[in-house]
């Protein structure tokens, strides 16, 4: 419906409108089988994990065709494991830092623990939590 409304009014726009799906304060990525996987992975990482995922437009869901899942998970895991520095924001090469406070830390850890125990979810990567100095949560990818 949204795309139809855009198409019906396309001549009123100066540029092609970009639609963002939002799920209760978070966004999602709906992936088509013809999509470029590297673009998807890079966009998902930035959307999901910048600002420790604490922005209203953070990607919290990716609807992914099975045909792309192995490559998506592989590329996500490689980047999350080897390229995303999680540390103090005072270091130039830090990608993201701690979550804002103990309440956020506890809530996120609770969801990760739930995913770890659930028979309908699988942690693909991440899930480590450390509150010894700050409230650090490793970027986490969960298959549901």
Automatic annotation (TrEMBL):
Active site, per annotation: 22
Domain of life: Eukaryota
Record field: catalytic activity: L-glutamate 5-semialdehyde + NAD(+) + H2O = L-glutamate + NADH + 2 H(+)
SUPFAM superfamilies, per the entry: ALDH-like
Gene Ontology BP terms: L-proline catabolic process to L-glutamate
Entry EC no(s): 1.2.1.88
Cellular component per GO, a single term: mitochondrial matrix
GO molecular function: L-glutamate gamma-semialdehyde dehydrogenase activity
InterPro entries the UniProt entry points to: Ald_DH/histidinol_DH, Ald_DH_C, Ald_DH_CS_CYS, Ald_DH_CS_GLU, Aldehyde_DH_dom, Proline_metab_enzyme
Gene3D superfamilies attached to this UniProt entry: Aldehyde Dehydrogenase, Chain A, domain 2
Every Aldehyde dehydrogenase domain range: 14-143
Keywords, sorted A to Z: NAD, Oxidoreductase
UniProt keyword Plastid, yes or no: no
One Pfam family cited in the UniProt record for this chain: Aldedh
Protein name: L-glutamate gamma-semialdehyde dehydrogenase
Originating organism: Rotaria socialis
